[in-house]
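for the writeup, i need someone to sanity check this before i put it in the appendix. the sequnce is what the collaborator sent (i think, or maybe the updated version? ugh). structure was predicted straight from it, no edits. if anything looks off just tell me and ill rerun, i have time this weekend
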Amino acid sequence: MRDYPTNKRMMLFSGSSNPALSLKVAEYLNIELGQIERKRFKNGEIYVRFNESVRGADIFLIQTCSDPVNDNIMELLIMIDALKRASAGMINVVMPHYGYARQDKKAEGREPITAKLFADILQVAGTDRMIVADLHIATIQGFFDIPVDHVTAIPIIAKYFKEKQLSNAVIVSPDVGGVKRASIFSKQLGFPLAILDKRRPSHNVAAIEHIVGDIEGKDAIIFDDLIDTGGTLVEAIDILLEHGANKVYAAATHPIFSGDALEILGNSKAEEIIVADTIPIKKDYNRDKIKQLSIANLLAKTIKKVYDCKAVSDLFKGENLV
């Protein structure tokens, strides 16, 4: 943290990755988004300038890791550096989707740990605090030496399914690593938990070998932190139906939707696929099948808690520490 005295003034700025979400957050906070000038030099380098004074202010800077991921990360780092050099009091980075999170450990020799590398880069750039949503794995918080407030979209997605009034359902964790997240979701809905035993022979490839739990004759809700290519999810949907599930729904916080994922998921046998708006869906898609819920109000409440120096965990009854 810089030594500049804060004048206790909140300012909210948006990167270019998810402006629609940023605007919604600003509306909930009843403030205007700050003005930023952006352009690119002819060689592709990014230029950023803040068009108003940020000296001594508590800055909340919203930028998610969406496609193009590396450009959005570089833009974020440049914005942080500009804020630091303009004497901002506190630089709070609000990152709905934390990028490079799936490489959180070495699975094989000579591999990087990019989740740690990214944390180091953000801190060296000048970040004072992080607000993130549904990290791929909770231990990433330990990669930071600054405060990290963890937000979860579980209450929003659970509310959606409560309104459907399903009476005979089961929550399905897509792998052993997601059991704690899925168990919190199942607790909020009051449904039992089942687990898919999944193996990953290579990146973006998974094989489902067993189902642990009773899914026959029930409506199954697969719950995960993200959906990427959609291939593994479609396989899980098909396997659950083959083993007697009545209907299969899927839900996740982050809609990465790489490649042909939207088409693959739109043609799947899922009843519905529910995601949050941590990442914008930029292509046309089957809106009857794929539905996006907003976490803007939740992020706004979290920002207000942080600004007022109050406990963020109160928003989630302690169930945001997955």
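The mean pLDDT is 93. Residues 69-85 form the longest helix (17 residues).
thx in advance!!
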